[in-house]
Specification:
This protein is mainly alpha-helical. The chain has 26 helices and 2 strands. Helix content is about 75%, strand content about 0%.
Length: about 575
């Protein structure tokens, strides 16, 4: 017995009245509430990872870490947030609520243990234990993202660029600026309380929206893209409001109660999409009600049961099969050879068709995309994870660090929505390939890294804007390229495999380059001052030399990633000149 979604008619008026949904049911079970729920889940899931730069100093001072150890924690944070292959495999065989529930439990456990350690309520854990806690807590983000984002992409396959832009825009990008407002409004400057806040908030939101996020087999409505543009306009309004608030707060300084007032405006914009959800579902409900009253239901979602009787009828009316060709034994031999897994792995289908997991992982296209992501995302992520230490080493006060985080978050958001929507427009109208846009974004990131390296006077704000924009823009492009080249059948797993490149880049560039060079310069400064570091003492570096060499190396690595992406552009140029969405309209 199989169920599928098709358009159909309802034969009787009584069944029409019985089957017609109430408006409340229409809203609660509709696709647009699912989109809104996915926005909130992804926004909350990234709260702990996006705020690491704000509470990292509390970790460093309370536990007596040096910069290399702190960057090691940052690496495990990135590892957990981006290694979602397990969540992808689970999501292949279970409904989305399973991975969402698991993610909520992991977030609560991981960050609750970190809060207990930093607040001194338990004995100081070993470094490996802290790495494990932050990896488990941040891995909840991968589970939440898999459950929410992958579900939305599958429900809106022809608008995947817009979907990715909106969802990734809220996740991590606007999250940092919004949570910063909540943090100052609720806790003032208590970074330890912030860790507890990011422990329970994502878990509560994920569990609250479990029923809303699910796969829906529905036909495309004519105004789908228009609705996503409305979501975009609301998010732009939120980003603009946050930008104004940040400028005002920087200029005048806010008390905790004044932060509460600004937070009220932020929450208004955050929940404003709910009004759009009600509006769209009301229009759909009204249309369905009118059709039911007319005796015909043109709903896009009904259930058609395909039983054995229908199969027999179809078989009876179809002509008898033609006799097999003489060369059948040879054909069967070739089919058996083609069915072996090793043969299939290295014989992938055409680009755009559904690759198997192994076919995608062993393809040259995936290797190039993976290597480019290590270089591009790894470099920008290193800058973001060291934001607090960069500001401190250059003599910026604590309130400027909050400004940096909010500023970077907003430009991170702009990068995500611009890359998502602009790449969709350029692709559909001008056949402009997404890999080429990814290469241009990485080239721009090189400029941001050079500004950081040379500490150009009054250019640090500009550098954070560029780095935030480029970091955000790479994600929707990466995930859209994976879905377009390798298909949607195993997207849950392949999406998460692409994310693995981020922690690899973070480890190489953050821990082995930035952290090592920072500590080396800090030890040189201590030796020049005639002092020696005591065991468990915080290791700090002051001055532009702390990160200069590191960012010069990162700029070079990012440029290498840009060249790698250009190779992918050349390999896929023929594919992107074709109509890659044709099969979804057939």
């Amino acid at each position: 017995m199989e169920e599928m979604a098709v358009a159909g008619t309802v034969p009787s008026t009584d069944s029409n009245r019985t089957g017609m949904k109430s408006l409340a049911v229409q809203i609660l079970t509709g696709r647009w509430l699912m989109v809104f729920a996915a926005i909130l889940v992804m926004f909350a899931a990234a709260s702990a990872t996006s705020m690491f730069g704000l509470y990292s100093n509390a970790l460093k001072s309370s536990l007596g870490y040096d910069q290399t150890t702190l960057n090691l924690l940052g690496f495990f944070k990135d590892l957990g947030a981006n290694v979602g292959v397990i969540s992808g495999l689970i999501n292949e065989v279970t409904p989305p609520w399973v991975v969402l529930s698991m993610g909520a439990a992991m977030n609560l456990f991981g960050y609750l243990m970190i809060w207990l350690a930093v607040s001194g309520k338990i004995a100081k854990p070993h470094v490996w234990q802290m790495c494990l806690y932050i990896c488990i807590g941040s891995n909840s983000q991968a589970f939440a993202t898999t459950g929410a984002l992958v579900t939305c992409v599958k429900n809106f396959p022809e608008n995947r660029g817009a979907v990715l832009g909106i969802l990734k825009g809220y996740q991590g990008a606007l999250t940092g600026a919004i949570i910063t407002q909540m943090y100052h409004a609720f806790y003032g400057d208590d970074a330890v309380a912030l860790i507890l806040f990011v422990a329970w908030l994502p878990a509560a939101i994920s569990l609250g929206f479990l029923p809303a996020i699910r796969i829906m087999k529905v036909g495309q409505r004519r105004n789908e893209l228009k609705v996503f543009y409305n979501f975009l306009y609301i998010s732009l309004g939120l980003a603009g409001f946050l930008m104004i608030i940040i400028i005002v707060q920087k200029k005048f300084g806010f008390t905790q109660s004044q932060y509460g007032g600004s937070l009220a405006g932020v929450l208004f914009f955050l929940f404003l999409p709910l009004a759009l959800v009600v509006k769209e579902e009301f229009e759909l409900w009204k249309m369905n009600k009118q059709e039911c009253l007319n005796g015909y239901s043109q709903l896009n979602i009904i259930t058609e049961k395909l039983n054995t009787e229908n199969t027999d009828e179809i078989g009876a009316s179809s002509p008898p099969p033609s006799p097999p060709p003489i060369s059948a034994p040879a054909t069967n031999s070739r089919n058996q050879k083609g069915n072996s897994w090793l043969w299939n792995v290295f014989r992938p289908p055409n680009r755009g068709e559904d690759y198997t997991i192994l076919q995608a992982l062993f393809s040259i296209d995936m290797f190039l995309l993976f290597l480019a992501t290590i270089c591009g995302v790894g470099g920008t992520l290193t800058a973001i994870d060291n934001l607090g230490q960069i500001g401190t080493s250059l003599g910026y006060p604590t309130d400027s660090l909050s400004t940096f985080i909010s500023l970077m978050s907003i430009w991170n958001y702009l990068g995500r929505v611009v890359a998502g929507f602009a790449s969709e427009i350029f692709l559909t109208r001008y056949k402009f390939p997404r890999p080429l846009m990814l290469a241009l974004i990485q080239l721009l990131a090189c400029a941001g890294h050079l500004l950081m390296a040379f500490n150009v006077h009054n250019a640090l704000y500009l550098a954070w804007m560029i780095i935030g924009f480029c970091f955000g823009a790479q994600w929707p492009l990466l995930f859209a390229i994976i879905s377009e080249i390798f298909g949607l059948k195993y997207y849950s797993t392949l999406y998460n495999f692409g994310s693995v490149a981020s922690p690899i880049g973070s480890y190489l560039l953050n821990v082995r380059v930035a952290g090592y060079l920072y500590d080396k310069e800090a030890e040189r400064q201590m030796a020049a001052a005639g002092s020696h570091r005591k065991h468990g003492e915080e290791l700090s570096c002051i001055g532009p030399e702390c990160f200069k060499l590191a960012f010069l190396i990162i700029a070079g690595v990012t440029f290498f990633g840009t060249l790698t992406t250009f190779i992918l552009v050349l390999r896929t140029r023929k594919f992107y000149r074709s109509d890659i969405y044709k099969k979804f309209r057939e």
